[in-house]
Design a protein that fits this description.
alpha+beta; 3 strands
Length: about 110
């Protein structure tokens, strides 16, 4: 049993260099897709143990990326009898970075 655990640990460690780039990829996908991508990459590199490690890394990175991505928002503010100001914030998450643009319209 001990040899099996050591062999599994060795396979998991061998997978780590390839899995190092996985979090950036998974952050733009979300937890479910990150886990699937991680399992595929990890499985190719390290077999079943690598797939399990990759799925865990991918799911965690996907969840972190999803939590860090601000939701798109629209705010409407009414100023008494003069004008209405609309503020529209749109965020797009890319590989490892989120870009937000804000537009403001006064009517």
């Amino acid at each position: 049993m001990r040899k099996l655990i050591l062999a599994a640990a060795a396979v998991a460690l061998a997978s780590l260099p390839v899995l190092a780039g996985l979090p950036a990829l998974a952050q733009s996908e979300g937890p479910a897709a990150g886990a699937a991508t991680g399992a595929i990459i990890g499985g190719v590199v390290g077999g079943p143990v690598g797939a399990a490690v990759g799925a865990g890394v991918g799911a965690g990175a996907g969840a972190a990326g999803q939590a860090a991505s601000p939701p798109n928002a629209v705010a409407v503010e009414t100023v008494p009898s003069t004008w209405v100001r609309e503020r529209n914030t749109t965020c797009v998450q890319g590989a490892g970075a989120t870009t937000c643009t804000e537009t403001e319209v006064r009517r």
